[in-house]
Amino acid sequence: MIRALWTASTGMQAQQTNMDVIANNLANVNSSGFKKSRADFQDILYQTRKAAGTGGDGNEVPTGIQVGLGSRVAAVQKVFTSGDFQQTENELDIAVEGTGFFQVTLPDGTDAFTRSGAMKKDSTGRLVSSDGFPLSPEVVVPENSTAVTIGPTGNVEVTLDGESTPSLIGNIELVRFSNPAGLKSLGRNLYAETPTTGAPITGTPGEEGFGTLSQGFLEGSNVNIMEEMVNMIAGQRAYEVNSKSIKTADEMLQMTSQLVR
What we know:
By secondary structure, this protein is α+β, with helices and mostly antiparallel strands. Helix content is about 25%, strand content about 30%. It folds into 2 domains: about 1-80 and about 225-255, no CATH class; about 85-220, no CATH class.
C-alpha cells in the first residue's frame, strides 16, 4: 500500500508540471512569435519481484513480475511550428515565412535569437527589438528617410527626403540551428544557443533552407487554444485519478490497521 501512495504522488507531480506548461502556453496566446511548449512523460524505476526466464524445475517463466514506481516529466520541449501571420501595415514589422530566427545583441554582448519581428527604431535609427536589443548585423535608418522597404531576401532600402530612387542601407540576415528544440528560453521571446543546438548557421533569407521575410506582417503565437483546453481537461482528469489512487490506498491501509485478530 505504501508503494501505491508514493507512485500516485509522482503522477500528481507530473500532471502539475503539465498544467504549468499548458498555463504558460495559454498566457502567451497573443505573444508575437511565441512557440508553445509540450511536456513529455516517462515511467521511472521498476521493482523486479521475479525476473523473466527463471524457474526452479527446468521450465522458463515467460514473463516476470515487475512493479512500476510512477512517472515523471522527461522533457519540456518547444514546438517550433509556424504561427498565423497578422497583417499590421507597419513598415518595421517583419515575419519569417519558413525557417530562421532574427539575431539580436544583448547588453552583455552575447547573441540571442527571436521569431518576433516587431522592430522599432532607437534614437540613432538602429532597428531594435521591443526591448531595445539591436539587430545583428546592425541596420541603421537615416533620419531623413521617408519610407523603409524590406524585401523578401532581407534587403533594406530607404527613400530619402527629396529623392525618388531608393537607397540600399543594409541586409537582414537569419540564423537557423540543426536542433532548434534545444534552444534555451530566455523570456521576452528570446532564445539562447546551447551545446545541443549545434552552431548557429547564418544566411540570407530565401537561400540555403532559410525562409523569406514579409514586411508589414507579424507572426503570431502557434498556440491552439482548443488543443490546450483539451490538454488541460485531460491533465486535470489524470490528476484526479492519481489523487483517487492515493485515497484508495489510504482507505486500504486504514482497513488493515483496524483488523482484529
